Amino acid sequence: MSIIAFAGSNSSVSINHALVNYVANKLGKDIEVIRLTDYDTPVYSFDIEQKEGIPAATQKLAEKLATADKLIISVAEHNGNLTAFFKNQLDWLSRHNRNFLADKKVMLLSTSPGKGAGAHALAIAKSTLPFFGAEVVSGYSIASFNEVFKEGKLSDEVAKPLLSEVEKFLG
């Protein structure tokens, strides 16, 4: 089974990417962690699409995602929404292939430095990703990330239930 994990953030210090890395490293399973910033695309525009076509980076990302049986996506939240960066990736991918997540089981994660835990972005992703064929199986949010994640580790009271949920998802 192929599992790919990534964060919906373009920040070099993304706490959502730190969360994805933590989960992948802690479970010791064959989870490939990718960075969406390795697939740089312009802001989606119909005019760009008509003039230049689908960016090569989008095509490569679509090919990469197609190899996965399951995805773990940690969504960052900006102003109660998905990040513009992640939304842009979704826009380009859906123009390349509307059902680019067909038959993919997805676990959504979210975290934030505040008490909201990225819950709004998680809910938006949960309702949006099925439009692209995904089956969102589960979701898990962590509030106050900077308080519970120290020196590359989550506190035990946060880590245990999270890792249990991810293990269930991975089957």
Task: Kindly identify the CATH topology.
Answer: Rossmann fold
Strand order of the largest sheet: 2-1-3-6-7
Which CATH class applies here?
Alpha Beta
Helix content: 40-55%
Main beta-sheet strand count, sense and barrel state? 5 strands, parallel
Rg, nearest Å: 16 Å
Question: Structural class per helix/strand content?
Answer: alpha/beta
How does the overall form come out from the CA principal axes?
A: globular
Name of the CATH architecture: 3-Layer(aba) Sandwich
Beta-strand portion reads 15-25%
Q: Give the quaternary arrangement of the chains.
A: single chain
Give the low-confidence spans. Answer: none
Q: How far apart, in Å, are the first and last alpha carbons?
A: 10 Å
The number of helical elements comes to 7
Number of domains: 1
CATH 4th-level superfamily = Flavodoxin domain
Mean pLDDT: 97
Q: Care to count the β-strands?
A: 9
Protein name: NAD(P)H-dependent FMN reductase
Keywords: Flavoprotein, FMN
GO molecular function: FMN binding; oxidoreductase activity
InterPro entries: Flavoprotein-like_sf, FMN_Rdtase-like_dom, NAD(P)H-dep_reductase
Keywords:
Flavoprotein-like_sf; 22% strand; 171 residues; NAD(P)H-dependent FMN reductase; Rossmann fold
Q: How would you describe what is shown here?
A:
The chain is an alpha/beta fold. The chain has a single domain, classed as Flavodoxin domain (Rossmann fold, 3-Layer(aba) Sandwich), CATH 3.40.50. 43% of the residues lie in helices and 22% in strands. The strands form three sheets. A five-stranded parallel β-sheet has the order 2-1-3-6-7. Strands 4-5 form a two-stranded antiparallel ribbon. Helix 3 packs across helix 4. The protein is globular. The model has no long low-confidence stretch (mean pLDDT 97).
